[in-house]
Amino acid sequence: MEQEKKYPLKKVLMICSKGNLEDVLAALVMANGAVMEGIETKLFFTFFGLDAITKKRMNKLHTATVGNPAMRMPGGLPFPTLLGALPGVEAGVTKMMKKGMDKLDIPPVDEFLELIEAGGGEIYACKLAAEMFNLTKEDFHETVKAIITVGDLYAMCDGPGTQIVFT
């Protein structure tokens, strides 16, 4: 039996297109983990994911309560989607999420970006989405290296051992 040749992961490109707290955190945790493992890491924020790198929005992200089938109430019971639409529920759930993050010493978004950059990771904004939302480089956190096109993004994906992860 022929042994399958394995290629180590050398480069990872994370694409974050959502602006809710849990999806942004997923991208940041995975990117930070890659940086810590010595993997070349690039983060690309597009559409609502731009909120994660926009100075005015980055530390005001909320947890999605409506349309989130994985949302659970204390005790593990399913969270009725209708509850998420009630005034104050999203803010309360977000507060609970942030409290849990603090307990685990998970940094806020801006600090997470700084950790990733300090570890050698690169952070980019999508040109099309930035133009669509009238955002410029000055609107973004200082860790954003550049505003690039999708073509620029794909040009960074060369070489064996490269993975694209969409969060």
Looking at this protein, list some descriptive labels.
Hypothetical Protein Ychn, Chain: A; 6 helices; alpha/beta; five-stranded parallel β-sheet; 167 residues; 5 strands
Write a structural description.
The protein is of the alpha/beta class and about 170 residues long. The protein has a domain at about 10-40 and about 110-160: DsrEFH-like (Hypothetical Protein Ychn, Chain: A). Helix content is about 35%, strand content about 15%. The protein is built from 6 helices and 5 strands, in the order E-H-E-H-H-H-E-H-E-H-E. It has helices spanning about 20-35, 80-85, 90-105, 110-120, 125-130, 150-155, and strands spanning about 10-15, 40-45, 120-125, 145-150, 160-165. It has a 5-stranded parallel beta sheet. Strand 1, helix 1 (about 20-35) and strand 2 (about 40-45) form a beta-alpha-beta unit. Helix 1 packs parallel to helix 4. The longest helix has 16 residues, at about 20-35. The radius of gyration is 18 Å and the shape is globular. It starts with 10 loop residues before the first strand and ends with a strand.
